């Protein structure tokens, strides 16, 4: 049936064009952001009509952004916080997931239920005592409140438990036969097998840490300790719609690391999003 | 052989088992300590604070709850939160579903579209909102397109209704990629045999979509709706970025979490803020319960 084939091809072509138009609409704000960031005069008045090719191309806004140390400082803060947060949250999820998968101990069901229950408690309900607690510890305006809570990674723990559940039981038996203790078995036999799930969890918690906003907004006032989103939001709040060029250069630079991470690991990220979304939050 | 060993080392094995019991708690130590410090304690302390007032934490019974529920600002914040979230879901879920269906029907380049549509969701809401502050500028692209289509120029962030629609447009754009990814995962879970069987019976692609795809997706779309609702009730960053601490203009972008934030950290009224936080918590629990029911029904 050549007629059917042709019709099928035509429909596919229409769908392809439609999706391309829609995808361009989705990407347009970013393209426009970059274009404005490359216009020096955008700091005086918004370029009108909107254009994607800068009218007076210049690196002025980027030079300004990098000559001022504040953005680099914010990058550094965000990176340090993210590295520790990812390490702690992935580490505690792997340890806990392994215990719930292979362990045999009193209160296992109750403890697992407790971990699941923490997923239902919104952060906003805990916000004020979290602040007063870190305040009493003298840790406001330090990086600690942004790092330490990452030890709780309930979703990660559930995902690692499921991952360990799929691995053959024989692994542990043979390691034990060789006289290895639980920790040795865990580190030398199981951890090397956790590549895919570790990558997924690391990306998820990196995104969480890098994008987090309300909690840093509460615990950080010090200009030198601001994370990238805090720095961007305070800059944009202080300047309103003035300095659109510099603001868009800052926005571009704040998106760039995450965009690169996303493009490099898109397969993992898209899969982990589907996974976390199906499990609920 | 193993029987003999059990007999010989029976006692030793029991001791070893007990030892290995204890070691599992060491594995769980980081998680359990974290839950105790950052979940259980704050949850209880928040409940306690919600019955107190002032710097000396005077016990006031349920006065804070009564005050929150009698506050017009609170109810306006609830209204704003619900308004933005309802339209966000009603727009993003059907459109995301349709786009996912289109992407799923392509044999090639579906991965490219997945990535392109997901990019906004991969960026932080703060950066996305910063860009949208400029998009919604009176001389920005959105007005330019609106004027090309013959509409009046709108100063988006100056009127309560248009400001909320600014937030809705931002949140739909930012969330759409997530909806598409979830829908694609669920579309691919529909057994291919359904389509093959109906093709033999001579069903057209549209009939297949309407009779197989849509009924099979109702369940996961419902779950997506509840998930989006729970997330939407906690919205803060988008509204805060567009409207500031007070949710300007005229508090039209003041959300429930914004209320908690403003009373707690703007006014140091921990009691009022905690009471509002607990009211939000109860609502979220109800919807989480509905969601687990839906997940169990597996419709």
From TrEMBL, chain A:
Domain ABC transmembrane type-1 per the UniProt entry, residue ranges: 75-265
KW Transport (keyword) present: yes
Topology class, membrane: Multi-pass membrane protein
InterPro entries reported in the protein's UniProt record: MetI-like, MetI-like_sf
Superkingdom, taxonomy of origin: Bacteria
Subcellular locations according to the entry: Cell membrane
Transmembrane segments: 12-34, 74-98, 110-134, 146-164, 185-206, 243-265
Cellular component per GO, a single term: plasma membrane
Family, as annotated: Belongs to the binding-protein-dependent transport system permease family.
Protein name in the entry: Sugar ABC transporter permease
Upper taxonomic lineage: Bacteria, Bacillati, Bacillota, Bacilli, Bacillales
Automatic annotation (TrEMBL), chain B:
CDD domains: TM_PBP2 (cd06261)
InterPro entries, per the entry: ABC_transporter_permease, MetI-like, MetI-like_sf
Gene3D superfamilies membership: MetI-like (1.10.3720.10)
GO cellular component, one term: plasma membrane
ABC transmembrane type-1 domain ranges (all copies): 78-291
Domain of life: Bacteria
Lipid bilayer topology: Multi-pass membrane protein
Cell compartments where the protein resides: Cell membrane
Pfam families referenced in this protein's UniProt entry, alphabetically: BPD_transp_1
One example of a Gene Ontology biological process annotation: transmembrane transport
Main location: membrane
Keywords: Cell membrane, Membrane, Transmembrane, Transmembrane helix, Transport
Keyword Magnesium (UniProt): no
Recorded coiled-coil stretches: none
Transmembrane stretches, start-end: 21-44, 82-103, 115-136, 165-187, 208-231, 270-290
Protein family membership: Belongs to the binding-protein-dependent transport system permease family.
Name of the protein described by the UniProt record: Sugar ABC transporter permease
Origin organism lineage: Bacteria, Bacillati, Bacillota, Bacilli, Bacillales
């Amino acid at each position: 049936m050549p007629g059917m084939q042709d019709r099928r091809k035509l429909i596919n072509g229409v769908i392809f064009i439609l999706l391309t138009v829609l995808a361009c609409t989705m990407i347009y704000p970013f393209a426009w952001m970059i274009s404005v960031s490359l216009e020096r005069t955008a700091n005086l008045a918004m370029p009108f009509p909107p254009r994607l090719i800068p009218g007076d191309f210049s690196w002025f806004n980027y030079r300004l952004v990098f000559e001022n140390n504040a953005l680099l400082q914010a990058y550094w803060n965000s990176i340090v916080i993210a590295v520790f947060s990812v390490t702690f949250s992935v580490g505690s999820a792997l340890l806990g997931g392994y215990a719930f998968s292979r362990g045999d101990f009193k209160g296992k069901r109750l403890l697992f239920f407790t971990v699941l229950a923490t997923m239902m408690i919104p952060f906003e309900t805990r916000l004020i005592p979290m602040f007063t607690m870190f305040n009493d510890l003298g840790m406001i305006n330090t990086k600690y409140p942004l790092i330490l809570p990452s030890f709780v990674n309930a979703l990660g723990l559930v995902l690692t438990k499921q991952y360990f559940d799929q691995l053959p039981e024989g692994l542990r038996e043979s390691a034990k036969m060789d006289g290895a203790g639980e920790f040795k078995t865990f580190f030398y036999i199981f951890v090397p097998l956790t590549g895919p799930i570790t990558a997924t969890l690391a990306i998820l918690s990196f995104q969480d840490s890098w994008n987090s906003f309300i909690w840093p907004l509460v615990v950080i006032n010090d200009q030198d300790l601001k994370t990238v989103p805090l720095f961007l939001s305070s800059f944009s709040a202080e300047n309103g719609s003035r300095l659109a060029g510099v603001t868009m250069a800052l926005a571009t630079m704040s998106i760039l690391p995450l965009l690169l991470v996303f493009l490099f690991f898109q397969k993992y990220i898209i899969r982990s999003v589907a996974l976390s979304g199906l499990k609920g939050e | 052989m193993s029987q003999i060993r059990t007999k010989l080392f029976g006692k030793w094995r029991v001791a070893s088992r007990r030892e290995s019991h204890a070691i599992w708690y060491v594995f769980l130590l980081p998680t359990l300590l974290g839950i105790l410090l950052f979940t259980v304690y704050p949850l209880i302390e928040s409940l306690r604070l919600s019955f107190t007032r002032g710097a000396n934490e005077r016990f006031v019974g349920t006065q804070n709850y009564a005050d929150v529920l009698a506050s017009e600002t609170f109810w306006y914040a609830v209204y704003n939160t619900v308004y933005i979230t309802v339209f966000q879901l009603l727009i993003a879920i059907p459109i995301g579903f349709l786009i996912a269906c289109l992407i799923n029907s392509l044999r090639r380049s579906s991965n490219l579209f997945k990535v392109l549509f997901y990019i906004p969701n991969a960026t932080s809401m703060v950066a996305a909102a910063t860009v949208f502050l400029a998009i919604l500028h009176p001389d920005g692209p959105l007005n330019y397109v609106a004027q090309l289509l013959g509409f009046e120029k709108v100063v988006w962030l100056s009127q309560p209704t248009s400001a909320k629609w600014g937030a809705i447009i931002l949140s739909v754009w930012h969330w759409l990629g997530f909806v598409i990814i979830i829908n694609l995962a669920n579309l691919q879970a529909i057994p291919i045999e359904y389509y093959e069987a109906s093709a033999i019976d001579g069903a057209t692609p549209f009939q297949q979509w309407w009779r197989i795809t849509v009924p099979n997706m109702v369940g996961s779309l419902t779950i997506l709706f509840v998930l989006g609702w729970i997330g939407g009730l906690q919205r803060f960053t988008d509204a805060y970025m567009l409207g500031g601490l007070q949710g300007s203009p005229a508090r039209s972008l003041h959300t429930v979490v914004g209320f908690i934030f403003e009373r707690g950290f703007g006014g140091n009224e921990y009691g009022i803020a905690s009471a509002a936080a607990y009211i939000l918590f109860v609502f979220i629990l109800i919807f989480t319960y509905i969601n687990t029911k839906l997940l169990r029904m597996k419709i």
